[in-house]
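User: Okay, second chain of the day. Same drill as before: sequence in, structure tokens out.
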Amino acid sequence: MAENMDVIPLTRERVNLDFETPSFEGADHVVHLAALSYVPESWKDPTSFYQTNVMGTVHVLEAARRFEVPVTHISSYIYGQPEYLPIDEDHPVKAENPYMQSKILAEQACEFYKKNFNLQVCIMRPFNLYGKGQRSNFLIPLIVSQVLDDKKESISLESLTPKRDFVHISDLVQAILLNIKKPSNYIFNIASGQSYSVLEVTELIMQASGINKNIIGGKKERPNEINDTRASIERARSILDWEPKIDIRQGIGNILKELQSL
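Assistant: Same drill. Structure tokens below.
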């Protein structure tokens, strides 16, 4: 990170669900990370997702406008069912669930503030993030917990066929730091540029752990399930000079080493 630079990471708690506009006095850059992010939960409680992800973003943008502070807004995968692969940043966006729609609306607010208030806002669209400390209901920790559980003789999952582009959290952090060093108004995909099915991820985790179990895949799918999400990351490469450093095998290996050392 640049020396003597004051960066404020925005979490859900800092934005405040009462929507008090935060103060960015003295900050050089704001990283807006505040969001609700679990797709199945967004179907159960969409209102909370719109309140947090849309209005929370508006309050961050308004504070950044007042204090003239550039923003790095962390968005998400918002492309819906892909029309082509790999998916670049110019691909049409489409809401397949309330979470995705809330992130699209948040991006629209960012674009409005850029155009009408000359606010410097970079939008980053991480695909499937994973890494240490991720909640247990996300795919990779869900599989890892079943693989390492001696009481479980098999691994039980929903559909085994959907493919996702997984990117390690440390690679997102590096992209953020590069944009803080040289702020921009671009939209960037942050991903690996490769996709793996649920079955392939499960097999990689078992291979890395040295544990073999039967894999049981159900036929149940989430509403509007997306079959594949492989990203183009050429824009981030060329403009940010960013490249993902941790491939999925290394990332899974690091998670397993940390858990098995406990």
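Confidence is low (pLDDT under 50) at residues 12-18.

User: Thanks, on to the next one.
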